């Protein structure tokens, strides 16, 4: 039984590390990866709804949120590749939870405020992501401000 647990944990760590490396989550590809995923999501939603509109358009709210800086830090640091922020109208990946209320809930879930969590995450997935690409202090502060605004708008 003990070996089974150890094998499971080792497989879990290898799978997430391999996925992270396979997806190439470095900053040099961040600018090209995000628009493609947004286009793919837009295409899928348009096809499902049966709309014949241009598939590369973003919604005005999403464009405005990113352009005004609310989502700029989240997009620049690849947060939106796994997470969405519905309260800011930022569509993102579905791998991670929606971050609309992260500012107020991270401390209860992980035992530390969101800024400390982003510096030293306590979840296995986020610790793998952050350890491979630690956030500079200025970027972390921008993300915290965006999450604070998202939490306020979600109330």
Automatic annotation (TrEMBL):
The Gene Ontology terms for molecular function here are: electron transfer activity; heme binding; metal ion binding
- Kindly give the InterPro entries that the UniProt entry links to this protein: Cyt_c-like_dom, Cyt_c-like_dom_sf
Instruction: Give residue spans, biased composition: Polar residues.
Output: 30-41
Q: Where is the Cytochrome c domain?
A: 66-151
Where does this protein have compositionally biased stretches of type Acidic residues? 49-64
Q: Which UniProt keywords apply?
A: Heme, Iron, Metal-binding
Full protein name? Cytochrome c domain-containing protein
**Where is the segment annotated Disordered?**
30-72
């Amino acid at each position: 039984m003990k070996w089974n647990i150890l094998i499971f944990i080792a497989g879990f760590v290898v799978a997430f590390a391999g996925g992270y490396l396979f997806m190439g989550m470095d900053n040099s590809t961040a600018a090209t990866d995000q628009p493609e995923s947004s286009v793919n999501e837009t295409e899928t939603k348009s096809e499902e709804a049966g709309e014949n509109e241009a598939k590369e358009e973003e919604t005005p709210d999403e464009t405005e949120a990113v352009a005004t800086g609310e989502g700029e830090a989240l997009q620049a640091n690849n947060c939106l590749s796994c997470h969405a922020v519905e309260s800011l109208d930022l569509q993102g990946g579905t791998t991670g939870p929606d971050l609309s209320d992260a500012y107020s809930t991270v401390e209860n879930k992980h035992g530390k405020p969101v800024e400390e969590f982003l510096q030293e995450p306590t979840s296995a997935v986020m610790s793998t992501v952050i350890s491979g690409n630690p956030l500079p202090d200025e970027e972390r502060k921008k993300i915290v401000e965006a999450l604070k605004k998202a939490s306020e708008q979600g109330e």
